[in-house]
Amino acid sequence: MSRVVRTEPLRGEPPVRLPGDPFSVVVLLRGYAEPEGVGGAVRADGSVTLILPRASRHREPPSEGGEAKTALEDAARGPILVDTGGPWARERLLEALAGQGVAPADVTLVVGTHGHSDHIGNLGLFPRAALLVSHDFCLPGGCFLPHGLGEERPLRLGPGLEVWATPGHGGQRDVSVVVAGTALGTVAVVGDVFERDGDEGFWQALSEDPVAQERSRRRVLGTADVVVPGHGAPFLVVREAWSPEAEGPEARDQEEPPETETPDAREGGPPTPSPSLGTEV
Known about the structure:
Blueprint: E1 2-9, E2 16-18, E3 23-29, E4 32-35, E5 42-45, E6 48-53, H1 67-75, E7 80-82, H2 90-99, E8 109-112, H3 117-120, E9 130-133, E10 136-139, E11 143-144, E12 155-158, E13 161-165, E14 175-182, E15 185-189, H4 210-221, E16 226-228, E17 235-242, H5 249-252, E18 279-280
Parallel strand pairs: 7-8, 8-9, 15-16
Antiparallel strand pairs: 1-17, 1-18, 2-3, 3-6, 4-5, 6-7, 9-10, 10-11, 12-13, 13-14, 14-15, 16-17
Protein backbone atom coordinates (compact mmCIF):
# COMPACT_ATOMS: atom_id res chain seq x y z
CA MET A 1 0.00 0.00 0.00
CA SER A 2 1.35 3.43 -0.96
CA ARG A 3 0.78 6.75 0.73
CA VAL A 4 -0.51 9.59 -1.43
CA VAL A 5 0.61 13.04 -0.36
CA ARG A 6 -1.30 16.22 -0.95
CA THR A 7 -0.73 19.70 0.42
CA GLU A 8 -2.92 22.43 1.82
CA PRO A 9 -2.05 26.07 2.59
CA LEU A 10 -1.51 27.01 6.22
CA ARG A 11 -3.68 30.04 6.81
CA GLY A 12 -2.46 33.14 8.59
CA GLU A 13 -0.26 36.15 7.98
CA PRO A 14 3.30 36.35 9.36
CA PRO A 15 4.38 35.98 12.01
CA VAL A 16 3.01 32.44 12.01
CA ARG A 17 3.88 30.78 15.33
CA LEU A 18 3.93 27.02 15.84
CA PRO A 19 4.57 26.37 19.54
CA GLY A 20 6.53 23.30 20.44
CA ASP A 21 8.62 21.52 23.03
CA PRO A 22 11.54 21.90 23.21
CA PHE A 23 11.54 24.18 20.12
CA SER A 24 8.91 26.53 18.70
CA VAL A 25 8.90 27.74 15.10
CA VAL A 26 7.96 31.28 14.04
CA VAL A 27 7.73 32.14 10.34
CA LEU A 28 8.78 35.79 10.53
CA LEU A 29 8.72 36.83 6.87
CA ARG A 30 6.99 35.10 3.98
CA GLY A 31 9.11 34.85 0.86
CA TYR A 32 7.80 35.87 -2.53
CA ALA A 33 8.74 35.73 -6.21
CA GLU A 34 6.86 37.98 -8.64
CA PRO A 35 7.43 38.74 -12.34
CA GLU A 36 8.88 42.20 -12.85
CA GLY A 37 8.39 43.86 -16.21
CA VAL A 38 9.49 41.94 -19.28
CA GLY A 39 12.44 39.74 -20.19
CA GLY A 40 12.04 37.22 -17.40
CA ALA A 41 12.96 39.57 -14.52
CA VAL A 42 11.67 38.54 -11.10
CA ARG A 43 11.39 40.50 -7.88
CA ALA A 44 11.99 38.05 -5.04
CA ASP A 45 12.94 37.59 -1.42
CA GLY A 46 13.29 34.49 0.71
CA SER A 47 11.29 33.39 3.73
CA VAL A 48 12.82 33.98 7.17
CA THR A 49 12.09 31.64 10.08
CA LEU A 50 12.95 31.86 13.77
CA ILE A 51 13.37 28.79 15.96
CA LEU A 52 13.07 29.42 19.68
CA PRO A 53 14.20 26.95 22.35
CA ARG A 54 12.10 26.52 25.43
CA ALA A 55 13.29 29.09 27.98
CA SER A 56 13.61 26.47 30.68
CA ARG A 57 15.58 24.05 28.53
CA HIS A 58 18.27 22.41 30.64
CA ARG A 59 21.85 22.08 29.54
CA GLU A 60 22.57 18.54 28.46
CA PRO A 61 25.82 16.70 29.16
CA PRO A 62 28.57 17.47 26.60
CA SER A 63 28.07 15.38 23.49
CA GLU A 64 30.59 13.04 21.98
CA GLY A 65 31.59 13.01 18.35
CA GLY A 66 33.75 16.05 17.73
CA GLU A 67 34.21 19.75 18.25
CA ALA A 68 31.76 20.78 15.51
CA LYS A 69 28.93 18.68 16.96
CA THR A 70 29.43 20.15 20.42
CA ALA A 71 29.64 23.69 19.02
CA LEU A 72 26.46 23.25 16.96
CA GLU A 73 24.49 21.90 19.90
CA ASP A 74 25.75 24.76 22.06
CA ALA A 75 24.76 27.34 19.43
CA ALA A 76 21.26 25.84 19.29
CA ARG A 77 20.60 26.74 22.94
CA GLY A 78 19.62 30.26 21.88
CA PRO A 79 17.41 31.65 19.13
CA ILE A 80 18.14 30.21 15.69
CA LEU A 81 17.44 32.06 12.45
CA VAL A 82 16.93 30.11 9.22
CA ASP A 83 17.75 32.38 6.28
CA THR A 84 17.90 36.17 6.57
CA GLY A 85 16.25 37.49 3.42
CA GLY A 86 17.99 39.95 1.12
CA PRO A 87 19.75 43.15 2.25
CA TRP A 88 16.77 45.15 0.97
CA ALA A 89 14.69 43.44 3.71
CA ARG A 90 16.98 44.53 6.55
CA GLU A 91 14.48 46.81 8.32
CA ARG A 92 11.61 44.36 7.92
CA LEU A 93 13.78 41.63 9.45
CA LEU A 94 14.81 43.78 12.41
CA GLU A 95 11.19 44.75 13.05
CA ALA A 96 10.03 41.14 12.84
CA LEU A 97 12.70 40.00 15.29
CA ALA A 98 11.85 42.82 17.69
CA GLY A 99 8.22 41.74 17.53
CA GLN A 100 9.31 38.41 19.01
CA GLY A 101 11.47 40.08 21.67
CA VAL A 102 14.70 39.03 19.94
CA ALA A 103 17.62 41.37 19.22
CA PRO A 104 20.29 40.48 16.63
CA ALA A 105 22.79 39.95 19.44
CA ASP A 106 20.49 37.31 20.97
CA VAL A 107 20.68 35.04 17.90
CA THR A 108 23.20 32.27 18.55
CA LEU A 109 23.00 30.39 15.23
CA VAL A 110 22.09 31.42 11.68
CA VAL A 111 21.43 28.68 9.13
CA GLY A 112 21.55 29.70 5.47
CA THR A 113 19.74 27.09 3.40
CA HIS A 114 21.83 28.00 0.34
CA GLY A 115 24.07 30.77 -0.90
CA HIS A 116 21.67 32.93 -2.93
CA SER A 117 21.53 36.61 -1.98
CA ASP A 118 17.81 36.61 -1.22
CA HIS A 119 18.42 34.05 1.52
CA ILE A 120 21.67 35.16 3.16
CA GLY A 121 21.74 38.89 2.47
CA ASN A 122 21.71 39.97 6.13
CA LEU A 123 24.36 37.78 7.72
CA GLY A 124 26.21 40.93 8.78
CA LEU A 125 23.50 41.67 11.34
CA PHE A 126 24.61 38.67 13.42
CA PRO A 127 28.38 38.87 14.10
CA ARG A 128 27.96 37.07 17.45
CA ALA A 129 26.19 34.07 15.96
CA ALA A 130 27.64 30.82 14.71
CA LEU A 131 26.93 30.40 10.99
CA LEU A 132 25.95 27.28 9.06
CA VAL A 133 25.63 28.46 5.46
CA SER A 134 25.03 25.59 3.07
CA HIS A 135 27.64 23.09 4.33
CA ASP A 136 30.08 25.62 5.80
CA PHE A 137 30.02 25.91 9.61
CA CYS A 138 31.97 28.61 11.42
CA LEU A 139 32.09 30.10 14.87
CA PRO A 140 31.99 33.85 15.54
CA GLY A 141 35.23 35.30 14.30
CA GLY A 142 35.55 32.92 11.35
CA CYS A 143 36.80 29.62 12.80
CA PHE A 144 35.54 26.98 10.35
CA LEU A 145 34.90 23.46 11.66
CA PRO A 146 34.40 20.21 9.69
CA HIS A 147 31.21 18.34 10.55
CA GLY A 148 30.48 15.57 8.02
CA LEU A 149 26.96 16.62 6.98
CA GLY A 150 25.58 14.46 4.16
CA GLU A 151 22.30 13.11 2.78
CA GLU A 152 22.67 10.01 4.95
CA ARG A 153 24.11 11.92 7.89
CA PRO A 154 22.03 14.81 9.31
CA LEU A 155 23.40 17.14 11.96
CA ARG A 156 21.59 16.90 15.29
CA LEU A 157 21.35 20.26 17.02
CA GLY A 158 19.13 19.18 19.90
CA PRO A 159 16.16 16.96 20.76
CA GLY A 160 13.99 16.84 17.65
CA LEU A 161 16.10 19.47 15.84
CA GLU A 162 18.23 18.49 12.84
CA VAL A 163 19.87 19.97 9.77
CA TRP A 164 19.47 17.84 6.64
CA ALA A 165 21.45 17.92 3.44
CA THR A 166 18.75 18.47 0.78
CA PRO A 167 20.62 19.01 -2.50
CA GLY A 168 19.19 20.17 -5.77
CA HIS A 169 18.17 23.80 -6.08
CA GLY A 170 21.62 25.28 -5.58
CA GLY A 171 23.58 22.17 -6.49
CA GLN A 172 24.85 19.76 -3.86
CA ARG A 173 25.02 22.05 -0.82
CA ASP A 174 21.43 23.04 0.06
CA VAL A 175 20.30 22.31 3.61
CA SER A 176 16.97 22.23 5.46
CA VAL A 177 16.15 22.54 9.16
CA VAL A 178 13.73 19.97 10.56
CA VAL A 179 11.93 20.59 13.86
CA ALA A 180 9.86 17.86 15.52
CA GLY A 181 7.40 18.25 18.38
CA THR A 182 5.45 21.37 17.36
CA ALA A 183 1.70 21.77 17.74
CA LEU A 184 1.29 20.70 14.09
CA GLY A 185 3.93 18.00 14.15
CA THR A 186 7.25 18.09 12.30
CA VAL A 187 8.15 21.34 10.52
CA ALA A 188 10.71 21.44 7.69
CA VAL A 189 12.22 24.82 6.77
CA VAL A 190 13.54 24.01 3.33
CA GLY A 191 14.72 27.10 1.51
CA ASP A 192 14.12 26.60 -2.20
CA VAL A 193 13.76 22.81 -2.14
CA PHE A 194 10.14 23.93 -2.48
CA GLU A 195 9.64 27.35 -4.08
CA ARG A 196 6.06 27.45 -2.77
CA ASP A 197 2.99 25.27 -2.46
CA GLY A 198 1.91 24.14 -5.93
CA ASP A 199 5.26 24.77 -7.61
CA GLU A 200 5.21 21.59 -9.72
CA GLY A 201 5.10 23.48 -12.99
CA PHE A 202 8.32 25.44 -12.61
CA TRP A 203 10.71 24.38 -9.83
CA GLN A 204 12.72 22.21 -12.24
CA ALA A 205 13.67 25.23 -14.37
CA LEU A 206 15.20 26.91 -11.30
CA SER A 207 17.13 23.84 -10.15
CA GLU A 208 20.83 23.14 -10.70
CA ASP A 209 20.21 19.42 -10.12
CA PRO A 210 16.56 18.45 -10.64
CA VAL A 211 17.23 14.74 -10.02
CA ALA A 212 18.74 15.44 -6.60
CA GLN A 213 16.05 17.99 -5.80
CA GLU A 214 13.27 15.53 -6.63
CA ARG A 215 14.90 13.13 -4.16
CA SER A 216 15.08 15.87 -1.53
CA ARG A 217 11.46 16.86 -2.08
CA ARG A 218 10.24 13.29 -1.62
CA ARG A 219 12.29 12.96 1.54
CA VAL A 220 10.75 16.13 2.97
CA LEU A 221 7.22 15.06 2.03
CA GLY A 222 7.80 11.70 3.67
CA THR A 223 8.58 13.30 7.03
CA ALA A 224 7.22 16.84 7.39
CA ASP A 225 3.73 17.82 8.52
CA VAL A 226 4.41 21.48 7.70
CA VAL A 227 6.78 22.84 5.06
CA VAL A 228 8.15 26.39 5.05
CA PRO A 229 9.13 27.02 1.40
CA GLY A 230 11.53 29.62 0.09
CA HIS A 231 9.05 31.89 -1.69
CA GLY A 232 5.55 31.38 -0.38
CA ALA A 233 3.31 30.64 2.58
CA PRO A 234 3.87 27.58 4.79
CA PHE A 235 1.79 24.58 3.81
CA LEU A 236 0.49 21.41 5.41
CA VAL A 237 1.40 17.93 4.20
CA VAL A 238 -1.50 15.47 4.28
CA ARG A 239 -0.85 11.75 3.80
CA GLU A 240 -3.55 9.37 2.69
CA ALA A 241 -3.36 5.62 2.22
CA TRP A 242 -3.98 4.32 -1.30
CA SER A 243 -4.38 0.73 -2.38
CA PRO A 244 -5.17 -0.51 -5.93
CA GLU A 245 -7.10 -3.43 -4.42
CA ALA A 246 -9.59 -0.97 -2.96
CA GLU A 247 -10.31 0.54 -6.37
CA GLY A 248 -11.04 -2.53 -8.47
CA PRO A 249 -9.31 -4.15 -11.48
CA GLU A 250 -8.86 -0.94 -13.47
CA ALA A 251 -7.05 0.79 -10.65
CA ARG A 252 -4.79 -2.23 -10.15
CA ASP A 253 -3.53 -1.73 -13.67
CA GLN A 254 -2.32 1.75 -12.85
CA GLU A 255 1.21 2.32 -11.63
CA GLU A 256 0.16 5.37 -9.65
CA PRO A 257 -3.07 6.96 -8.49
CA PRO A 258 -4.22 9.82 -10.70
CA GLU A 259 -3.02 13.28 -9.79
CA THR A 260 -5.40 16.16 -9.35
CA GLU A 261 -4.37 19.58 -10.49
CA THR A 262 -5.00 22.59 -8.32
CA PRO A 263 -5.36 26.19 -9.50
CA ASP A 264 -2.43 28.46 -8.65
CA ALA A 265 -4.77 30.80 -6.80
CA ARG A 266 -5.43 28.50 -3.84
CA GLU A 267 -3.53 30.65 -1.37
CA GLY A 268 -5.83 33.10 0.31
CA GLY A 269 -9.03 31.36 -0.84
CA PRO A 270 -11.30 28.96 0.98
CA PRO A 271 -10.07 25.44 1.70
CA THR A 272 -10.66 22.99 -1.10
CA PRO A 273 -10.35 19.21 -1.21
CA SER A 274 -8.35 19.31 -4.45
CA PRO A 275 -4.70 18.52 -3.69
CA SER A 276 -1.95 20.81 -4.94
CA LEU A 277 0.37 17.85 -5.08
CA GLY A 278 -0.35 14.19 -5.72
CA THR A 279 2.81 12.23 -4.96
CA GLU A 280 3.43 8.67 -3.84
CA VAL A 281 6.00 8.31 -1.05
